Structures are given as C-alpha cells and as structure tokens.
Amino acid sequence: MHLKVIIDDELYTLNVPDEIVHDSGDFFDQMDRDMDAGRQMGREWVARLDVEDRIRIIGDKLLSALERENHDVGRMMAAYILNRAPALDTLLLDTTGEIRNTEIRYRSL
Any idea what DSSP says for residue 85? Predict the structure, then answer.
C-alpha cells in the first residue's frame, strides 16, 4: 500500500507492505489503548481523541521517524495510518510543532 506524505512542499510516497498494514492489528490496538487517555496536541490537551486526532498524532511520530531515518518506526506509523484510515490519500505534515495543523486528505470516491 502507498501513503503520500507532504513535508515542507515535498511529496513523498511511502510504500508499506500490505502484510504489515493488515497483520499488525494487535500492535495498532495497543497504540490506540495508549492514546485512549488523551494526548497533548500542540498547546491543547485533548481527552477524547477521534480518528483524525489519532492520525495527526501518529503523523507527527511518522515525521520524527523520517527525520531520524528510522525506517522501521516510520513504516509502522504509516501502516497504522493506512490501517485506521484506508480512504486517506495524502497527509500534509505540519513541521512547526502544531499537530492540529496537519492536513488529512481523503481519496474522492
């Protein structure tokens, strides 16, 4: 599967093996349980995260992994996003530290 990510006006297409997207449900469920208590999103605490909040948080982790060239973590973060939002087309990652500014674009049906 592919996830398009835009970082500072540069488009990257991340290739994530289907097996990871479909067979890592237990790991993704644990990630969700970890986020169930809420998270800091920029300057705001969000107690109840919806799917898009979770995608933005994981997108921020993806950005960090890409910056550090940690391909294994990056692949798992991309796989989580593709698993939880299969209609997602492109993620425009905010690089200023304001997670809420990350833009999520879905495929048109």
Answer: -
